Structure to design on (605 residues):
């Protein structure tokens, strides 16, 4: 049984239970010390969570927003960032196809709809969990319900499952849609390749590969599997699981006998994670309001 | 025991990460009573470990005596698996330093894998391989000592880790040149160069991917950014490859001078608002780029 500690000023709380692979990987983490930069504001510097003597969690006014946006907006508000994000999404489409003013206006409208829907969902959570003191159970419940919003923000509001994405093939002509899809597929493939490369770098520590082996393995994985629908904190498992699903006949010729044993030992570890992987990716695809309901649930299960 | 400051270089660390880290971390500064209690518990654990090691050493002596008897009977060392177990046990009980015990299994995986790789790339004769193993064993033990010392130091403050694999391979290449031939060493070095090039490409591709997801780069912009990052490569980008498997906000970012010339105005606006990067480290395991277990798949094949 693993044990995870949550420490505060005056007492220490312990959560026990089985942990996900993601959590186990996260156990390797520590944050290096560093000084704040001028950009940091006073509001940013407040404590995330305070655990008081009465086993209560004290949550500040801006806490939910800080979790969802992960203090990752620099000197821009989240709304400003999302507005600019929509603009560059449209600009990216324009690099593949020439949009009319009417098409651009419709896409902008759909994108704004995604942003509005996201902030409406955020407001619901803020009302449900007002600032102040709360029990551990309530805190856990809040954390779990916030995670889908965090995941959606991280994944981008205009991707699969969004209004923007649904409207796109309707707004574009079939020819434009085909051109856009071609560009998008190549983009997804570049991202997938980057993640395969980094997984192979990790694998290479215990199974050193020649240049030829490395190249062949990348080619096979790219050819015989599909990119994940979403990337995040569990990319190693998302990629390794895909590799584990490729039939042996494509992979085995890349390795010698001893190497194959090491390789299959690694893939066997993730082969049984189908349900977890589907849970990771499925929500985002099907329902924009319930994306990848993984992080908090797994963290606390 | 590690103590973490929940502040990043580019501002406060993301709250979700803070919370995760708080959940995973040891007590934060300020929990003095807990710290003292934990310190005492740790000291007790170290003492227990030392006792266990002493007992194990005693057991190993008995096992060795039995092995000698079996050797006389001529059966024991014909079984490679048994040989591997005996040698590994001897290596572990050979030193009671808890930090060495902590580091050794990780380095052993690297080391065993590398010896397999040498056999594959350089194809030494059995005699040459035996000689390489023998001499590299001393190198391995020196590496264990060096990194154990660094891990120990890390527990008392920040430590800059050298890349253990690069240190190891550099010395192994020299051994191959000496024992086998300069040509074999060249083949090995060439593969090491390919490996390093692949690491660099991986880091660049992942940083470009991150910027693409944040800034929606066109294919031309992605290609330009990749080219300029390749030309002006920064070794810090490959320091900890594990970071590319975690949240994107922790991945390193290139200098603005490399990025902004290729961005449009809307992208520049977002770029200027992006934090300069958070200080994050996966510790010494991160330096070794290990995730998951410490399965030493080549142990039986190349036990020193």
């Amino acid at each position: 049984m693993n044990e995870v500690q949550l420490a505060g000023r005056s007492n220490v709380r312990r959560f026990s239970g089985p942990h996900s692979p993601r959590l186990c990987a996260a156990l390797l983490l520590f944050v290096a010390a560093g000084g704040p930069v001028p950009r940091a504001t006073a509001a940013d510097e407040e404590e995330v969570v305070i655990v008081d003597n009465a086993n209560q969690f004290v949550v500040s006014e801006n806490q939910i927003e800080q979790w969802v946006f992960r203090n990752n907006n620099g000197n821009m508000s989240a709304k400003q960032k999302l507005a600019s994000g929509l603009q560059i999404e449209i600009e990216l489409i324009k690099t593949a196809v020439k949009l009319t003013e009417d098409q651009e206006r419709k896409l902008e409208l759909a994108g704004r709809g995604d942003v509005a829907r996201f902030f409406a969902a955020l407001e619901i959570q803020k009302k449900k969990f007002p600032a102040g003191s709360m029990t551990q159970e309530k805190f856990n419940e809040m954390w779990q319900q916030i995670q889908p919003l965090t995941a959606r923000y991280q994944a981008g509001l205009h991707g699969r499952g969004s209004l923007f994405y649904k409207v796109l093939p309707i707004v574009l002509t079939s020819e434009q849609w085909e051109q856009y899809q071609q560009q998008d597929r190549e983009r997804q493939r570049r991202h997938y390749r980057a993640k395969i490369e980094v997984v192979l770098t990790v694998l290479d520590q215990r199974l050193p590969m020649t240049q030829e082996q490395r190249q062949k393995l990348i080619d096979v994985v790219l050819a015989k599997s599909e990119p994940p629908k979403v990337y995040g904190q569990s990319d190693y498992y998302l990629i390794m699981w895909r590799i584990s699903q490729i039939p042996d006949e494509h992979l085995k010729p890349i390795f010698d006998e001893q190497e194959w044993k090491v390789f299959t030992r690694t893939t066997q570890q993730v082969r049984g994670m189908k349900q977890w992987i589907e849970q990771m990716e499925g929500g985002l695809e099907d329902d924009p309001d319930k994306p990848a309901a993984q992080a908090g649930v797994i963290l606390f299960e | 025991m590690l103590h973490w400051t929940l502040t990043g270089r580019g501002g406060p660390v993301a709250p979700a990460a803070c919370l995760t880290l708080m959940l995973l971390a040891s007590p934060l500064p300020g929990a003095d009573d807990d710290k003292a209690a934990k310190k005492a518990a740790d000291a007790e654990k170290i003492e227990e470990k030392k006792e266990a090691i002493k007992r194990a050493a005693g057991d190993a002596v008995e096992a060795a005596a039995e092995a000698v008897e079996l050797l006389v009977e001529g059966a024991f060392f014909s079984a490679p698996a048994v040989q591997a177990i005996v040698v590994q046990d001897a290596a572990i009980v050979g030193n009671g330093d808890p930090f060495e015990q902590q580091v050794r299994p990780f380095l052993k995986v690297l080391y065993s894998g590398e010896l397999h790789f040498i056999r594959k790339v350089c194809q030494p004769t059995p005699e040459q391989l035996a000689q390489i193993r023998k001499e590299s064993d001393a190198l391995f033990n020196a590496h264990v000592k060096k990194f154990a010392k660094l891990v120990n130091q890390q527990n008392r403050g920040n430590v800059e880790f050298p890349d253990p694999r690069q240190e190891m391979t550099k010395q192994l290449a020299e051994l191959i040149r000496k024992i086998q031939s300069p040509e074999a060493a060249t083949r090995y070095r060439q593969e090491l160069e390919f490996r390093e090039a692949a690491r660099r490409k991986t880091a660049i591709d992942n940083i470009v991917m991150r910027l693409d997801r944040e800034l929606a780069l066109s294919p031309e912009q992605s290609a330009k950014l990749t080219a300029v990052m390749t030309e002006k490569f920064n070794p810090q980008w490959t320091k900890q490859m594990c970071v590319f498997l975690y949240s994107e906000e922790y991945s390193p970012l290139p200098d603005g001078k490399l990025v902004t010339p290729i961005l449009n105005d809307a992208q520049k606006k977002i770029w200027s608002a992006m934090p300069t990067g958070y200080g994050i480290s996966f510790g010494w395991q991160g330096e070794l780029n290990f995730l998951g277990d410490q399965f030493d798949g080549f142990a039986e094949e190349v036990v020193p």
The radius of gyration of chain A is 22 Å. Chain A touches chain B through 91 residues (CB under 8 Å). The longest strand of chain A covers residues 3-7.
